[in-house]
Design brief:
heterodimer, A: TIM Barrel, 8-stranded mixed β-sheet, 4 helices, B: alpha+beta, Sulfite Reductase Hemoprotein, domain 2, Sulfite Reductase Hemoprotein, domain 1, 4 domains, 6-stranded mixed β-sheet, 5-stranded antiparallel β-sheet
Chain lengths: 153, 552
């Protein structure tokens, strides 16, 4: 599955651990679920390598609020493209000052990419093979916005 | 009225091009029907029982004569030569082909019209008092704020995939003609103790399967805080509104479940956070520009109550009756607001042919400064008519059959399209409306009955707003036959109330007789000056129930 970072296809540098997986060597960049973050927070923060969290769209972002400077990636999930909760999660995370990669995962489609960039997403895990072309087409669709181009700082 | 500027037009062109690309990708198979469905819905394109239906936005119910002519042209070229004005002040064309939809949308864009956000789980076209700007009882023209909300909500990046549709209505007047308490958010302009204008914010009203009257969560909101506060409402709803059950996903269910106090607290907390980051600023220059668009027109001096009016009223009681029923007080001396009844006896409520649309456009040019309004009761309004012109306007309205003196009366029926068009309906609405109109066609009787609102919905989704009709009819299917459940005592105005179910549903064959017996009972038991709604509130359902089921 192509992963885009700011429109360019890249290799995923992160290892996404499920809740039962053993922690790899310290240097490995890992993401964990919000539940695991809450349960093992101190142990995870003691690692030296990059840390990321995968939040379900039913989870409040308050759970990671104090740890944002330490997080390099937050992945927000779209179980269906029509379930828009992650837009508000993204908006809130950027407002709280999160400066790392905000990655959209799940049912991520061309016609929602522009909206996603506008609330602060900059990483997109897509299933379509020609993701780069779709990203460019999506962002080229509009030059005119009634709200700020990006509604987050 | 609002005129699109270069920015609005450039945006709309981008939107048309985007939709054309999406249709092409659907036809090529690149987009699945599931993926395409929400995209077309957000452009107003529904798949109905027999064909695609295009719902075209008429923001806050205001349109120009030129726009009305274009609607007539579009209906003629790509549809069957008529359109249906809806309870959300929009117009629907019922027979559009998918392949033609991009061309239709492009033709509408040429006159600054579109179907954007007339459907989908987003903030829908904002509605307002149809007498906005000309009503005698108004604090401020609510369309300034409705237009600001249109711009703010259009392609909003955060709120395009909400749990469910979201409808906002605004009024600036004392009398609520916009039904704000049955909307997801209702805004009523009011003044604080210092005399500054702001909004009362009502949240969580709605009809459908679970009719609920909206709750006030903010008594007074300064105008400049409107967008920040609404953004807070939307963010709370987007996060917490239910997505597991289509029928429990409107904001009214959230407000009902957690209570209005808790809702107010959560919205306030989010609003404070928004304010702390600088708020959602309203560019004063933009507000000024929008306000200028809605500046009152320059009215030529017009004689007040010219003597020939009184003379014609004496000579022709039909004119007097029409004037009394179908016109309303105007804030400008010597002027009147004229309602054109789209409920001529024997026609589907809210329908107009292309020829009729053109005739209304001509009337607007000649007598109403080129401006037309759509009322949520599915009538049209000429907002700027000189009193001296009323006789001519009356004759012109008569010539196209839009002068039936029934505004606010029993045959001014609100009805959804029903089973004749709609894929969701369980029963027909329009034929019941037509039969009722036929039964009560005698004008002396109609006026003796007085103010009386019948609303008909063809299914539980309540597009005909049956819960807030003085008499509501809900079509239900009983073993393949159409029956109608009757509710009494509803209202969509300042005294918003949900009607009470009176008893078992009545068959299609019996329903008109049942309503007639109910009306006769009212006429028999009413006290002097008492309207049907007054009587209903005084005596309850019992006497009406008895009469409805008398012959059964």
């Amino acid at each position: 599955m192509p992963l885009l970072r700011q429109g360019v296809a890249i290799e995923d540098a992160w290892t996404h651990l499920d809740d039962a997986a053993a922690l790899p060597a310290d240097a490995v960049a890992i993401t964990v679920t919000g539940a695991r973050w809450a349960a093992e927070r101190d142990r995870l923060l003691a690692r030296t390598g990059p840390l990321g969290v995968r939040l379900a769209n039913s989870e409040a972002v308050d759970g990671v609020e104090g740890d944002l400077p330490r997080l390099g990636l937050i992945a927000l999930h779209f179980p269906k493209f029509s379930d828009g909760r992650a837009y508000s999660q993204a908006r809130r995370l950027r407002r709280l000052g999160f400066a790392g990669e905000l990655r959209a995962t799940g049912n991520v489609l061309q016609d929602q990419l522009l909206l996603m960039t506008r609330v602060g997403f900059d990483g997109f895990l897509m299933t379509a093979p020609d993701a780069e072309r779709r990203y460019q087409a999506a962002l080229a669709a509009y030059d005119h916005f009634y709200q700020p181009r990006r509604i987050v700082a | 009225m609002y005129r699109y500027d270069e920015f609005d037009r450039a945006f709309l062109e981008e939107r048309v091009a985007q939709f054309r690309d999406q249709v092409a990708r659907r036809l090529s198979g690149d987009l699945s029907e599931d993926e395409f469905k929400l995209l077309r819905l957000m452009n107003g394109l529904y798949l109905q029982l027999h064909a695609y239906m295009l719902r075209i936005a008429i923001p806050y119910g205001t349109l120009s004569s030129g726009q009305m002519r274009r609607l007539a042209d579009v209906a003629e070229r790509w549809d069957r030569g008529y359109g249906h004005f809806t309870t959300r002040q929009n117009i629907q064309l019922n027979w559009i082909r998918l392949e033609d939809a991009p061309d239709v949308i492009a033709a509408l864009a040429e006159v600054d019209m579109h179907g954007i956000q007339t459907s989908g789980n987003c903030i829908r076209n904002v509605t307002a008092d149809q007498y906005a700007g000309v009503a005698a009882d108004e604090i401020e023209d609510p369309r300034v704020w409705a237009e600001i909300l249109r711009q703010w909500s259009t392609n909003h990046p955060e709120f395009s995939f909400l749990p469910r549709k979201f409808k906002i209505a605004v009024t600036g007047a004392e009398l609520d003609r916009a039904a704000i308490r049955v909307h997801d958010v209702g805004l009523r302009m009011r003044r604080d103790d210092a005399g500054a204008a702001g909004f009362e914010v009502v949240v969580g009203g709605g009809l459908g399967r679970t009719p609920l009257v909206g709750k006030t969560i903010r008594r007074f909101l300064p105008k400049d805080d409107l967008l920040g506060y609404l953004e807070a409402v939307m963010r709370v709803y987007n996060a917490l509104g239910r997505r597991d059950n289509l029928y429990k996903s409107r904001i009214k269910i959230l407000v009902h479940d957690i209570g209005p106090e808790r809702m107010a607290e959560m919205v306030d907390a989010e609003f404070q956070a928004i304010q702390a980051e600088g708020g959602v600023s309203l560019d004063p220059e933009l507000v000024g520009r929008i306000r200028a668009h809605f500046a009152p027109p320059v009215y030529a001096p017009a004689p007040v109550e010219p003597p020939e009016l009184a003379a014609l009223e004496r000579a022709d009681p039909a004119f007097a009756r029409w004037r009394r029923t179908n016109t309303a007080a105007h804030r400008e001396p010597g002027h009147a607001i004229v309602n054109l009844s789209l409920k001529p006896h024997g026609r589907p409520p809210g329908d107009a042919t292309s020829a009729e649309m053109r005739a209304v456009a001509d009337m607007a040019d000649r007598w109403s400064l080129g401006e037309i309004r759509v009322a949520h009761e599915q009538n049209l309004v000429l907002p700027h008519v000189r009193q001296a012109d009323l006789p001519e306007v009356w004759r012109a309205a008569q010539a196209i059959g839009f002068a039936t003196p029934n505004i606010g009366h029993l045959t001014d029926i609100i009805a959804c399209p029903g089973l004749d068009y709609c894929a969701l309906a369980t029963a027909r609405s329009i034929p019941i409306a037509e039969r009722l109109a036929d039964r009560f066609r005698d004008l002396d009787r109609l006026h003796d009955i007085g103010p009386f609102r019948i609303n008909i919905s063809g299914c539980i989704n309540a597009c005909g707003h049956h819960h807030v009709g003085h008499v509501g009819l809900l079509g239900v299917d009983k073993a393949g036959e159409e029956f109608y459940q009757i509710t009494l005592g509803g209202s969509a105005e300042e005294d918003t109330a949900i009607g009470r179910i009176v008893g078992p549903a009545v068959s299609s064959a019996e329903v008109v007789d049942a309503i007639e017996r109910l009306v006769d009972t009212y006429v028999r038991i009413r006290e002097p000056e008492e309207t049907f709604l007054d009587t209903c509130r005084r005596v309850g359902n019992a006497p009406f129930k008895e009469s409805i089921y008398a012959a059964a």
